[in-house]
Design brief:
The protein is built from ten helices and seven strands. It is an alpha/beta fold. Helix 4 links the parallel strand 2 and strand 3. Helix 5 packs across helix 8 and helix 9 packs antiparallel against helix 10. Bound molecules: S-adenosylmethionine.
């Protein structure tokens, strides 16, 4: 798999939660991850604003959040005082074998090297410790928005979906035992005009650094197609299904 550079979310920290489904998304994802956590020490890697991390709370689990972005973590610090640390997923700030769980929620497609991240999780976990990963890109949605909106990711970021769901195959190659493969659904109401606005505001990471020429060639036509759909202000309920993988270190 082609290596790429980690994507910090610093530039969108102030809007991240509003434009990614807010509390409803966080609750759905945390509910899918929490049952798989063994008791003990958890490091949520790429925790961002900590909105999902905080939802993982359990009396027998001690939470710490880490992320590349100070700006994202500033919000996490308000939720998890004293329990946030700036760190790269490939260099976790813990000694060998001390963690009981490492989680990645919507993270692995953004890291430069998913294999190195999972190898680092292996180092940090005790035998019997677990990785829980929720893929950041959903399975394809079959509706009238998909050909204009979802297709943009596939054109602009080839391999992104595979990277998002790579935890299972890479983990098994590294020697983890696959305990569970499933998916969690986050259902969001979305209008064509709302999506077109969000694209124009470059709220999605695959649009952040897009050169003007590519923007004109690919994005402007997609926005026009979205705005031309019937009922452009009528919400469509989109069932975003995000793959979930649970791995155990033998
Ligand atoms: C889509 S956000 C997910 C945030 C959070 N897990 C959530 O679901 O709300 C991806 C996060 O991964 C962080 N990130 C990207 N590459 C990273 C790396 N190599 N190490 C640590 N964090 C990273 C970004 O800064 C961003 O906050």
């Amino acid at each position: 798999m082609e290596e790429h550079v980690s994507t910090s979310y610093a530039r969108i920290a102030d809007r991240y939660e509003d434009v990614r489904g807010g509390a409803a998304r966080a609750v759905a994802l945390a509910d899918a991850v929490r049952p798989w956590l063994p008791p003990g020490r958890l490091l949520d890697v790429g925790a961002g604003t900590g909105i999902v991390t905080a939802g993982l709370a359990r009396p027998d689990v001690s939470l710490v959040a880490c992320d590349l972005s100070v700006e994202m973590l500033a919000r996490a610090a308000a939720r998890l005082p004293g329990r946030v640390v700036v760190a790269d997923a490939v260099a976790l700030p813990v000694p060998d074998g001390v963690l009981d769980a490492v989680t990645y929620v919507w993270v692995l497609h953004h890291v430069g090297d998913a294999r190195a991240c999972l190898a680092e999780a292996w180092r940090a976990l005790r035998p019997g410790g677990r990785v829980v990963s929720v893929a950041g890109l959903p399975l394809p949605v079959d509706d009238d928005l998909a050909p204009s909106f979802d297709a943009l990711v596939d054109v602009l970021r080839p391999g992104h979906r595979e990277r998002a769901a790579a935890a299972g195959p890479i983990g098994v190659e590294l020697g983890f035992r696959a305990l569970h493969e499933g998916a969690v659904t986050v259902a969001l109401d979305v209008t064509p005009n709302g999506l077109a606005d969000a694209i124009e505001q470059r709220l999605f990471s695959h649009l952040w650094d897009l050169p003007d020429e590519r923007w004109r060639e690919l994005v402007e036509p997609a926005v026009a197609r979205l705005r031309a759909l019937p009922g452009p202000d009528r919400p469509r309920r989109r069932p975003y299904r995000h793959p979930v993988v649970v791995l155990e270190r033998p």
